[in-house]
Structures are given as C-alpha cells and as structure tokens.
Structure to design on (276 residues):
C-alpha cells in the first residue's frame, strides 16, 4: 500500500492516538494528514470528544453510600 | 495528634464522588439491576476503606479500586447467574465503521474512499462542548453506547486508565479493547457532530 484514503484513515485514528501503529502505517497516516485538512479536522474532533468525555461532570452520590463510607471511616479511628 | 495512618488517608469523600458514576456503570455490566450495582459500589468502598493499609501502590489507587469493584461485581453476577462475556467481541461482531460509509466517495467517483461529506471543523470546541446542553447530549450518547463500548470508553476516557489496565480488568485482548474504544469514541464524535451542527 503506498497511500491510504480518508475512509481508511478514520479507522486508524484510535491506534494513531494511542501511538501503537507500526512504522509503515504511521508513515501512511502522517503523509495523509499532511495532504488532507478534512482528516485533520476529523482527528481534532476525536481529540475534542475525548476531552469532552473526560470533562463530564461527576454524577451525584446517593446519600446512603456517603453515610456508609463516613461510618466505615469513623470505625477506623 | 492524628496517627500516621489517618494523616495519609486519601480524601475518600472526594474519591467516592469522583468515581461513583463510572463504578456504577462498570458494576451494572455484571449484575442485573441498578440497585444491585449500587450495593456493589458500596461494598467496594467499604472494602477499600478497610483494606487501604494493605494497598501497596503497585497500581494507581483508581485501578486498585476498580479491580476490587470488578471482582465483587463478578461474584454478584455469578450468584445472579448473569455473566456477561465481556471478552467476546471481535471477529463475530458485525463490522461497525467509524463513519457512515455514505460520507465517502464511492468507487465510481473521482476519489474513491475520500470524503464526499467531510466533517466541518468545530469552532472553539473547548467552549462549545462545555455547555450544559452539550454535556447532557454527550452523557446521553455515552449511556446509549452498546454496553461493552460504554465500559471501555468510561474506563479509558472518563477514568483515564491505560489500555493494559482496562484489558486486565475486563479480560479483553488488546485488539478487542482497541476496537471497543474506537467504535465508542467514533459514536460519541458523531453524536457531538450532530449536536454541534444542530445548534
């Protein structure tokens, strides 16, 4: 394979971001990204998605759990 | 004066809050109801508080907590005869492309496999994706993911565990872990795209 298309690139984004592509494939991805702003946008959107998931607010803790943990901590003292 | 062990205790109240949603989501994949999942989360924290002195720091505290949770949830799941073969994904799973194939040019077009309907850049995503509405949208999309994708995305991208830790916790091969993460992230991107383009 001497080059990849956009459809192939979007399937390589996860190992690309994990830094787990073999060298020849990494070269293909990087060569494609130099040529293709649309795929650069796609990769940026995946990055933004990961960031947004990481930034989701914490979910409310039931009072029962809070009380149980506090009691267990009290018991340690 | 506080004893040495009490001064080095982590801030449990904060940890419980920080991890509650993810812990419940993970537990829920092994047991049959939200109520039982909540019990598993509670049992886990009680075990963590009790056993914290034995925590040797060979993994992160988060990973340790999630491994206790997984064990407890599995035990409950077996008792309820609900065991999810979380590891059985891959070859048998139907192909799920990251992007709708209709968005690429087909073989008769000038540039087969290249974008026909390319993604439109998100302006200032760090601001737009932080709105309350965007977060609700994303949270709903996460809840809608197929279970195994949801758990892997939660552990990787919400909790920040690394790929090896997630494979260990869930008994997944590296390839399966990657496929689930890939598909889950792709679905969430698509959900955010439709949100961003709809407003």
């Amino acid at each position: 394979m001497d080059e990849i298309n956009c459809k192939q690139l979007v399937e390589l984004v996860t190992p690309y971001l994990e830094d787990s592509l073999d060298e020849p494939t990494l070269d293909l991805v990087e060569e494609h990204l130099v040529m293709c702003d649309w795929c650069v946008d796609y990769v940026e959107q995946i990055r933004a998605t990961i960031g947004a998931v990481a930034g989701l607010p914490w979910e409310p803790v039931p009072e029962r759990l809070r009380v149980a943990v506090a009691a267990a901590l009290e018991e340690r003292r | 004066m506080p004893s040495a062990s009490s001064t080095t205790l982590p801030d449990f109240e904060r940890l419980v809050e920080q991890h509650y949603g993810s812990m419940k989501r993970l537990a829920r994949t092994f047991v049959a109801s939200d109520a039982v999942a909540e019990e598993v989360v509670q049992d886990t924290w009680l075990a963590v508080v009790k056993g914290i002195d034995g925590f040797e720091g060979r993994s992160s505290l988060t990973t340790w907590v999630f491994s206790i949770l997984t064990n407890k949830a599995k035990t409950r799941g077996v008792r309820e005869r609900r065991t999810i073969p979380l590891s059985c994904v891959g070859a048998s799973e139907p192909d799920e492309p990251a992007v709708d194939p209709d968005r690429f040019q087909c073989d008769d077009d000038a540039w087969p496999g290249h974008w026909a309907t390319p993604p439109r850049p998100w302006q200032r995503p760090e601001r737009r994706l932080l709105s309350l509405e965007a977060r609700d949208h994303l949270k709903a999309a996460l809840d809608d993911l197929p279970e195994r994708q949801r758990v892997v995305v939660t552990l990787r991208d919400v909790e920040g565990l690394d790929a090896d830790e997630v494979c260990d916790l869930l008994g997944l091969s590296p390839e399966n872990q990657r496929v689930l993460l890939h598909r889950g992230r792709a679905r969430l991107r698509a959900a955010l795209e439709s949100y961003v383009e709809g407003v």
About this structure: Chain A has one domain: 6-76. Residues 37-54 of chain A form the longest helix (18 residues).
